[in-house]
Every structure is written in C-alpha cells, then in structure tokens.
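thread: overnight batch results

M.L. [08:02]
morning all. the overnight job finished for the chain we discussed friday. pasting input first so we're all looking at the same thing
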Amino acid sequence: MRFKVLLVIVGISFLSSISPISAQNKYNLQNALRTAKENNPILKTQQFNSIVAEADIITSKLRPNPKLNNQTLFLAKPTSFPNNTDWFSPQNRQVWWQLTKVIQTPAVRKSRIEYFQQNSILSQKNYHETERNILQVVALKWLDVWVAKKQLDILQIAINNTDSLAKINRIRLAKEVITSTDLIRTELLASQYALQQKNNEQIYKSEISNLKFLLGTDESISIDFNDDFSFDSHANLDSLLEQTLLDRADILVSKTTIKVTEANINLQKALATPQPELGVIYNPQNSVPYFGVYGTIDLPFFNRNQGEIQKSKVLKLRAEQDLKTIQFQVETELSVAYKNYVVQKQNIQSFKDLLSKSETILSSVKYSYLHGGTTIVDFLEAQRSWLETQQQYYNNLQQYRESYIRLLYTSGHISKMAQ
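M.L. [08:03]
and the structure it wrote out:
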C-alpha cells in the first residue's frame, strides 16, 4: 500500500515538473513578442551597434599621447675629428631629444565627448526602431500561423462531416435507399477536402518554421488561441496620437539625430581653433649639453574648418525637416490604422450572425437529406456554403487582427506589449 502511494506521489511530481516546459512552447501574441525581443537573431546582431558606439565614447575621452623624437647627427669627415676620437665619440656627434604633446583645448574635448555620447544614444534609439519593425514582422507571422491552423481546423470539420455522410450513404446504398451517384458525389467532395488539407498542412508547417526563426527557438511551438485582440477601448485617436508623437521610436530617433547634429556643430567650431603642440628639448652638441623648449601651432589664415562647420549646420536643417516629415507621416499612418481597426471590428460583429445562420442551414439540410426531404445536391451545396462562410469569417477575422497589429505598430504600443 505504501509503495503504491509512493508511486502516485512520484508520478504527480513528475507531471508537475514537465507541465511548465510544455506550457512554455505555447505562444499567445504577447509571449511571442517577448520571446522575439530576447532571442530574435536579427536583434541580437543589432545589439552590437550600441556596444561599438559606447566604445567610441571611451575613445573620445582619451587624451593625445606624447611624442618622443630623436635626431642623431655624426661628423662626416674623419679629418675633422678631434685627436684621439672616432665615429662614436661624443665630440663627433649631435643628439636631439624632443618630447612634445598636443594640448587639447577643453572646448574640443568637451564637444567631442558630447558628440559621441549623443551618437551612442542615437544607436540605442535606432535599435528600438529596428526592434519595433521586427516585432511587427513577428506579430504578422504569428497571425499567419494562427490563420493556417484555423483553416486546418475548419477544413477538418468539413472532412469529418463528409466522411460521416459517406459512411451513412454506403449503408443507405446497400439498402437501395439512394443511388450510387449520391455516394460518388459525397466521396468526391471528401477527396477534394483531403487534398486541400494536405496543402494546408504544408502551409502550416512552413509558417511554423518561419515563426520559430523569428522567435529564435528550435523547440516545437504551438499557438494559443485565447487572445481577444482588443485594443484599449478608452484610447481615442487624439490622445493616442499625442502619446505616439512622444513615444514612437522613429520620432525619438529623429529628435536624437538633431541633438547629434547640434553636438557636431559645436565640435566643428571647436576644431576651428588651432591645437598647440608643446614640449622640451635636450640637445647635446659635441658633448656640450643644451636644453630648450618646443612649441608649434597652426596659423588659421586659410583653413578655419569652414566646410565642416557649414556641412554640420546643413545636417541639422535636414534632421529638423526629417522630424517634421516623420511627424506628419505618423499622424497619417495612425489615423488610417485606427479607423481601419474600428471598421474591421464592426465587420466582425456583423459577420457572426452570418456564421450562425450558415451552421443552422447546414444542420437543417443535412437532417432533411438523411430523411429523404431533399437531394444530395442541396446538401453538398449547403456544405460548400458553410465552408465558404467559415473561410470568409476567418479571412475577415484575419483582417481585423492584422488591423489590430498595424495599430499596435503604428502607435508604438507593440514595443510596450513586448515588455
């Protein structure tokens, strides 16, 4: 008795230990987005750009290295050597040692660091914009898998209906209740559905493979259908637009680009100021030591960095114009996406009544046919009509959910959903 109790406890423990693993392979939309944010191979590659940009900040903080210069001159004529000396005697050579360093002005150092810091921030914003685009691709691919699975499910229902009818008709044909034509027509429709099922199965497998790549996983996955795809009903278009203009990644990229161009203007102006190079000299000449100082500076008669300064100002104007363009584009995209979402949601509500009616008609015609009240032609037509209505419903549902994903993407909420 104790041994049986122990087996039961062990079995329960084993099942509880494996259930979380199987649950991890079932993805609703939000889980798919979160997984892609962590594991998508394209995003993993893009992460290195931020690391490179941070390395540039380290480089910008480094000060110029000192320069050590040596010049050694030997007396060329042995006849000019002092008595009892040779080539390597100190009396016959002059040695020049020079240690100098470029003195970086505080303005150049500060503006250079600021420029690369803004570049690092820009790299992060660009990553978030890439992430937003990748998440939209993941969401749409998740939806493709969802649609493919739904098409398989409704086709399987149609196959089950025709298969069960074919079995009944074989019995009815044996009893001479129907003609062989009725059976052939039923089996023909079942065969057509079977061919469609094979094609749909391949489509489903292909879409699953594509989704696995985007999620960055090799595990077997499935789709969680418990998702109402309902956007925040309290969000009106004006408030949504106001928040989108503040948060959307491409707008933040454009705003940061303006800051980068401003930092670049300051840097180019600072570089217009000459950087002096100062140092000390030790110069033994014919064994007589000399000391001195060294200093050099560019004289900005011709080159005052005019071209780079002008270019940096033009780049700022371009960035400001780009921001205005993106803001106008966002307003247009969001308005279209929001209105399309509302229309598609209304269409789904209207279509549910047609779905219910098609199921009622099919059941009624099937009952009537089995009781001799109508012909096989009427039943097959009702069956085709039911399948077409089901497929149209899920096509409309796909359009509705796609409009939902587009609205998430356009408003920038898709990134928040993946958090």
